[in-house]
Amino acid sequence: MPQDYIRPSSLEEAMAIKAAKPEAVFLAGGTCLLAGDSRKKPDSLIDVGRILPRGIEHGSRGLVIGAGATFQDLVDSRSVPPALRDAALSMINRNVRNRATVGGNLGAGKSCASLVPLFIVLGARVKVLGPKGPHGALAMEWMAIPRGLLLEVELELKPGTWLAFARHSRTSCDLSVLTCAVAYGLDAEKRLDGLKVALGGLGPHAREFPDLAGFFEGQALPGKAAIEERARTVFSPRTDFRGSAAFKSVRAAALLADALHSAEEIT
Do 199 and 208 form a contact (C-beta atoms < 8 A)? Predict the structure, then answer.
């Protein structure tokens, strides 16, 4: 149980506290960090929930989302594409959506993190505040070694991109077992161009599947059966309490086929 709780009044103060107490952990919404499960909780917390950027703006840099924006903020925003709204709504409980933050979802890096597959296929970049000031990085590079305080996520939403998010859970209100995101363009002959595929739930973290995307690249969108047949040969999931490896492989393949065929064009 946390023994030391600090609420700084500025980002500068938060970084100074972190420098003095490197073992302390940044806290935003707390829906993952303080979840009532058996995981060991940090002894020291630095609450940055009130000082993180929270805006959601679509401008010259693309879609810029403050790390403090909640899942409900995404749902309510008119700036986000439908697929991102779907990903936010995959956290069914509105009380949780009111607390869970974009930055926390990336920082936790859970296998079925709702937003991460979409951020992967969109090539998301992040702005991070470190000891030497703010700097930019690819979201996936930062997630591999999450150092510093995440401030913003930047997404390039190119018109003509087809985008989709899909998930599988045991019940509608349960945590996701599998998540999937796809992004692609279509050339003049309606063939897949620049296909990106990412899934969560098949390993410790969500990840991209470039070899699978490469197999379909340059082709007309295949039927669902053909997509599933190919995908099942690529996936090698782990068995856990949410499902066997065999089940996950079959279900993930179907999820990918559904996502590819339900994608909506960004305009």
Answer: no
Contact by Cβ (8 Å): 80, 46? no
pLDDT category at 127 given cuts 50, 70, 90 is very high
CB environment 40-57: b (16+ within 10 A), e (fewer): eebebbbebbebbbbebe
pLDDT higher than threshold 80 for residue 2: no
CA distances from 251 to 85, 109, 170, 260 (A): 23, 22, 12, 14
34-39: long-range contacts (C-beta < 8 A, 24 or more apart)? Answer: 34/2
pTM: 0.93
Rg (CA), the chain: 19
| Of 57, 81, 54, 83, residue with least CA distance to 70 | 54
Q: Are 227 and 252 in contact (CB under 8 A)?
A: no
β-bridge mates for residue 220, sequence order? 191
H-helix or E-strand spanning residue 166: strand 162-169
pLDDT in tens, 57-82: 998 889 999 999 999 999 999 999 99
Gap between the Cα atoms of 175 and 167, Å rounded: 10
Counting Cβ atoms within 10 Å, is residue 123 exposed (0-12), middle (13-18) or buried (19+)?
A: middle
